[in-house]
Amino acid sequence: MDRQAERGRQAEQTEQAEQSGQDGQAEQAGQDGQVERKPARERAERRTAREQVEQRAMRRAVELAAERLGLTGANPTVGCVVLDDRLRVVGEGSHRHDGEPHAEVVALAAAGTRARGGTAVVTLEPCAHTGRTGPCTEALRAAGVARVVYAVADPTPRAGGGAAVLAAAGIATEGGLLAAEATRANRYWLTNATRLRPWVTWKFGATLDGRIAAADGSSRWITSAAARADAHLLRARHGAVLVGAGTVRTDDPHLGVRHGVAGPAPVRVVVAADPSRLPATARVFDGSARTLLAVPERFARAAAPPGAELLPIGPPDSPPDDPPAGSDGGQVDPRALLSALLGLGIRSVLVEGGPRTAARLLAADCVDEAVGHLAPALLGAGPALLGDLGIATIGGALRWEFRAAEPVGPDLRVSVVPVPDLPVPDLPVPDLPGEGAPGEGALVGAGGWTA
Ligand SMILES: NC(=O)c1ccc[n+]([C@@H]2O[C@H](COP(=O)([O-])OP(=O)(O)OC[C@H]3O[C@@H](n4cnc5c(N)ncnc54)[C@H](OP(=O)(O)O)[C@@H]3O)[C@@H](O)[C@H]2O)c1
């Protein structure tokens, strides 16, 4: 039975359970011992009330998951809320990091015995496999939970299938509640699992007329201190910050997390067509965080500047006698680069320019979201925020959609995503390359649970 059909069957079971009064409330014995059916309207009202409570609980679970975005290592961001048998919140929790308990286990521990007969509302289908911790399906069963509502199906063959395991244990199980919101809250891991590359955010600061520097090259500071602090928050939530060699030469950025923002230092990635054109004294090579210098494969034996590691990137999947244009010395293939970064355990990348680097990633369909800080300033001249995408006519424009727009200090922060956005996973994806057995800590291919 495929996952869709399975879900239909589970929903049907839930419906039947309600109608036959398994929840202890739909039917009541009258004084004469006869079973009286409560009016259909009353049952429908109770179901609507339950749906509303579960939706509120799922919103909270999504919030809990989103708080951990970028901080869970190899594992997904998951939130869970446990309701007791009278639909009161009795526990909540999120997954902190791989190796630590899963969200369901955290929420069940908070609920204790009050979980018995209750409902677990969780943003990702509970896992059915044993990694460094036991299967969540078993934890839910052992806690006596009667119903599980999850948002998004687990697309990984290794951990997926939990819904069917729960249903087989007699637990009413439904999927799909607030799936789009939960997908977004877990976007890094889902991108790793389904696209086999890190999630990529392109961040830029520009004037209202789309300039990133003045005609004389001066660019500090186009945007406000508030926008820069927001940029540091973004850095702290990504595994790597990536820039092109041009930005290193022009702006000499440090790419660390400062401005009072706490969080792990992201790996710094510099993309260069020729590493010898980079100044060895650049601040990204100061040794304060890991720095990777992504170069075409022909520079594999070049000397890396002190404080940096060379990351030679070969052509993606073509035979050696048929390399794609540019792989011989011109360009670093963006897809191959991202795949190499994922292989190093980097789950998300913040691209901080410049325009040519961003254009290459966009042209390769490797950007998942753009976050722009727009300053209410006009320059009229100077470099544009994006390099040539090879689009000659208006019909070829990349049409994205606004996800959010909000003031940040005196600037406007816009968040824009491609259409279509990251799809909500449904059916399982094929086995991921390079994954070891659970607990072996394999990072390559990413997406599977390691806890
Ligand atoms: N306002 C902002 O948000 C912002 C952010 C960043 C930068 N900037 C501005 O951007 C300007 C610099 O622009 P830019 O276009 O020169 O910068 P860039 O995109 O940072 O650098 C372009 C260079 O990066 C290397 N590169 C990028 N992708 C590559 C690939 N796939 N394969 C091989 N090499 C690759 C090449 O290095 P080689 O040099 O080795 O050929 C290329 O010439 C500066 O004025 C800076 O202030 C503004």
What does this structure look like?
Residues 16-33 have a biased composition (Low complexity). Residues 313-323 have a biased composition (Pro residues). Keywords: Metal-binding, Multifunctional enzyme, NADP, Oxidoreductase, Riboflavin biosynthesis, Zinc. Residues 1-30, 318-328 and 427-451 have low confidence and may be disordered. The radius of gyration is 25 Å and the shape is elongated. The protein has helices at 3-19, 40-66, 103-111, 136-142, 162-168, 179-185, 187-195, 225-236, 245-251, 334-343, 355-363; strands spanning 27-29, 35-37, 79-83, 89-94, 119-124, 147-152, 172-174, 199-207, 240-244, 267-271, 291-296, 309-313, 348-351, 369-375, 400-408, 411-418. It starts with a helix and ends in a 33-residue tail after the last strand. Helix 2 runs parallel beside helix 6 and helix 4 runs parallel beside helix 5. A hairpin with a 2-residue loop joins strand 15 and strand 16 (411-418). Helix content is 27%, strand content 20%. Strands 12-11-10-9-13-8-14-16-15 form a nine-stranded mixed sheet, with helices on both faces. A five-stranded mixed sheet has the order 4-3-5-6-7, with helices on both faces. The chain is α/β, with parallel strands linked by helices. The protein is built from eleven helices and 16 strands. It has two domains: 3-24 and 45-185, Cytidine Deaminase, domain 2, CATH 3.40.140.10; 197-389 and 396-418, Dihydrofolate Reductase, subunit A (3-Layer(aba) Sandwich). NADP nicotinamide-adenine-dinucleotide phosphate binds at residues 204-206, 212-213, 217, 219, 222, 243-247, 250-251, 271-274, 277, 331-332, 334, 352-357, 360, 383, 387.
